[in-house]
Amino acid sequence: MKILHVEGGRHLYGGAYQALHLMRGLAARGHQNVLACPRGCALAAAAAECADVCGLPMHGDADLLLIPRLYRLIRAVRPDLVHLHSRIGADVMGGCAARLAGVPVIHTRRVDNPEPRWLVALKYRLHDRVIAISEGIGRVLIAEGLPLEQLRVVRSAVEHRYSAPLTAAERAERRARLQVPAEACLIGVIAQLIPRKGHRFLLAALPELLTAHPEIQVRFFGQGPLAQTLQQQIDAAGLGAAVQLAGFRDDLAALLPALDLVVHPALMEGLGVSLLQAASAGVPIVASRVGGIPEAVREGETGLLVPPADVAALRAALSVVLADPEYRRALGAGGRALMAREFSLDAMVDGNLAVYREVLTAAGGAPT
């Protein structure tokens, strides 16, 4: 089977990283991948091992010329189907191009942002199937009018690379990279620096928590347009000694097991790949009960869930977890078990392949 993947993201995290995992799994199963992505993006370099990479100009949702670019590529590559992995114009322009070329097309929906019903009725008509990465996103799509028979749910996956807890020396070395003492209680927030990720709610909860737990250190991992605003809020609240913006880290996978807790106070979230990564590393989580997060974070099993934008509830949940190291260890062990049980790479790849075969069979093709 030959699949043309279209991904408009320029950075190798979130959806782009999931697309890379999928292409690697497909290649290992003997399928051929072709990737259309922005020229020079991080995904292009990483995917060269498992896909024929075609760098294209991609300028976002208003880039109507992406339709003829993708149409010409489809005609040249002659894939069995097209898989659209992102918005950023790929969902609509890619759908139009695939329809013009007469090739079956699938779109993966990774966010739970609401869309007007008229847009859902028009846009998803372009796609033979819509894959939601969580039941939460699936519920949003059905509520907005997507026909149930068009929806499939295939959860995102996480690479299980953590075979054992860190030694004391390893833990100290990795914390030193972040200028964090070995004895500190290290909290991480792993998210783009954008409003809907809710960093401000943790900042509001911290002053009282620091009074009870002065050993707390917080690192915001990620980049985004709110960086300057968040730094101003940190400085204005006098939190600079405890909270730092750590930026985008290529060594995040190595740093994760050195965290004591991950906090994700988002206002909306499709699933939260960073939460899957944290759980796989054995790190307990406190997060908002929104979107697909309750699928990634199980209350009392891998972490605690709180109402979104509720600073008092967030503070109370953090107080419970911070006060009990044994409880944190139990939640971390629960996270490892959940990831191995329900979020494996093999399950994600096989789930996507099942949708491919279903679509090709319905189109009269001969899936392999």
UniProtKB/TrEMBL annotation:
Top-level taxon in the UniProt lineage: Bacteria
Please provide the Gene Ontology terms (biological process) for this protein.
carbohydrate derivative metabolic process
Q: Where is the Glycosyltransferase subfamily 4-like N-terminal domain?
A: 14-159
> What GO molecular function terms would the record report?
glycosyltransferase activity
- Give UniProt keywords alphabetically: Transferase
Provide the transmembrane region boundaries: none
Extract the Pfam families matched here: Glyco_transf_4, Glycos_transf_1
Domain named Glycosyl transferase family is located at 172-336
**Could you tell me what this protein is called?**
Glycosyltransferase involved in cell wall bisynthesis
